[in-house]
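Before relying on records like the one below, remember that each one covers exactly one chain. Contacts with other chains, cofactors or solvent are not represented anywhere in the record.
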Amino acid sequence: MAVTFTLKHVCRQSGARLGVLHTPRGDYETPLFMPVGTQATVKTLDKDEVMRVSEGLILGNTYHLWLQPGEAVVAKHGGLHRFMNHPGALLTDSGGYQVFSLSAMRTITEEGVSFRHHKSGAPLFLSPEKSIAIQHALGADIMMSFDECPPFDADRRYHEASLERTLRWAERGKVAHARCDQALFGIVQGGPYADLRKRGLEKLMAIGFDGIAIGGLSVGESKQDMYQVLSELAPHLPIDQPHYLMGVGTPDDLLESVIRGMDMFDCVNPTRMARHGAAYTTNGRISIKSQRYAEALAPLDADCSCPVCQTYTRSYLRHLFKAQETLGARLISMHNLFFLKTLMADIRAAIADDRLLDFKSQFFERFYDN
């Protein structure tokens, strides 16, 4: 198997899992957060910066790389690792989320999805087999099964029909998967319905995947709805495989989801908010563009050991944004990713010491009550 998982410890206080994800390009302790490199780049950062502020496992986007530069170009480089010169492991999503979130005009059939390019309007078609073929050419260490991501608030009849089709697509994708050096994860859908989620999970486990991803969450539903789905699904997840919650990355969601059995996360949030001047600190989220920081000589976060906090003042960072210098977005992106890397390391330490609920209370008190 290309990717395996070792469960090392279960927190006696919270039930959260401490594990190791074994990949062809190294081992990664879990729970972990993966920065998003949509276009074969974590926005504004070079490869050395990415490795410094993350664990080194990052995500690329199948849909966008298919459209630009095209999977054939990436394959000519020897795969995505060489194309972007990334030394760590890579995960590619299936393209399914983008098909359903970016294209307003689409037709879903048993064969796949016909839709329009989100910019040019050109006709496109994506099927389970096509998604796998693109991901084969990209060559990431972990691939995702092609799925439909329906609106969370769609009615039960739609969710049920969508789930069954997604499971048939999962079977077809598994048959099309022909590279033993790439892992393939199945994606659990089913919206808010616990019985549909459980049915989907059982079918994916019967088909046989290398890991289980939870899709269709963080798509506009309330946090409590998301936590409820995870709580209901957690007891049924396979113990010996990684559990990947897709598209989640705020500090509160990371902690609450780890407590509910999740091991892997990704989200564009830390770099997207950085481009607008928003930064995580141990005392909460701040906007560095605020007038209050015009003459602030303190670092962004006095408790942070990232290169940004060791080098620059809040006043200087604010100046960069007011002067519309791109360095500002780069530096805040570095800090935000390092903040989440540190948070996940602290979470792992708390799990190992059987004190994650205590850690959560302490973290929330400082982060949200200041």
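The longest strand covers residues 4-10.
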